[in-house]
Amino acid sequence: MELRQLEYFVAVAHERSFTLAARRLHVVQSAVSAAISALEKDLKVTLFERNAQRVVLTEAGTALLPEALAVLDAVQGARDVVDELGAGMRGRVRVGLLPGLGLIDLPAAAGEFRRRHPNVELQLRVEPEGSAGVVVGLRNGDIDVGFLGVAQGSVPRELTAWELLRVPQVLAVPVGHRLARRRSVRVADLADEAFVDFPPGFGTRTLIDQRFEAAGIERRVVVEAIGIENGVQFLSHGVGLGILPAYAVAGVDALRAVPIADETFQWSLYMATLKRRKPTAALRALLGLVGSHLNQPPGTELGRDLDQQN
Hints:
The protein has 310 residues and is an alpha/beta fold. It has ten helices and 13 strands. It has helices spanning 3-15, 18-25, 29-43, 59-85, 106-116, 130-140, 203-214, 228-236, 246-249, 281-290, and strands at residues 48-50, 55-57, 91-97, 120-126, 145-150, 159-167, 169-174, 194-197, 220-224, 242-245, 255-258, 267-274, 301-302. It has a six-stranded mixed beta sheet with strand order 4-3-5-12-6-13, with helices on both faces. The chain has a three-stranded antiparallel beta sheet with strand order 10-7-11. β8 (194-197), α7 (203-214) and β9 (220-224) form a beta-alpha-beta unit. α1 (3-15) packs across α2. The model has no long low-confidence stretch (mean pLDDT 88).
């Protein structure tokens, strides 16, 4: 088994394509195919199911992937030690983002990281399936670190997570709605209402669904918005009610923020990595930088200091 074979294997696993993996590795596709075939022959297993439409990991390939990532991480760690003594930090950090994430000034953070570490490739990508998509990306090794918007205590055990902000939520009500003049409401008052929310898989959607289910209320979601701003647009046109951070509703003339007396629906913004993968020097540098680029609008609370944990 050669290191190059593991690199090619991980690339194919990430890209789900021999062609895209070859393009990413800057080699011809035949070299990737030959390396994978040699690795399969050495291990006496089939690592990928191949057909004209797709490339999928087999059970053996799925088992090998985290081990291959651990080997490559260890090699990168050795390179980091040498680089820090010589030409400086190198490598790559892949970040999974939430749609419409406005609590961090990501352009400023990315720009500062680039200036400090010009030899590190920083890749940012939005996970359309929200926090659930970020967790899958971390498990599969598609990303190195990701943002999660979930309830406190609900981060999967396989992840190491740093809390950035705590975000209480309010009921966003169109001004013409019967509840717009209420000083507060209770969850039971919302039993027959239509809601605008995010798709299943988003951490806040999961949180709200669970709280309504615990109250014995079947919630009716009529619009699944992508991102907070998109949700506010639907709410402003009276499509339904929403449970959103107070800062998202502030200053929107078409909406009123009504406190929910018996629930805060508070969630936390985290950065998370996979426990079994040792963070590279480049990733540690990014983790130490993010805390200085948090946007803290009214209605949020600063969580634990990220810098102190790195």
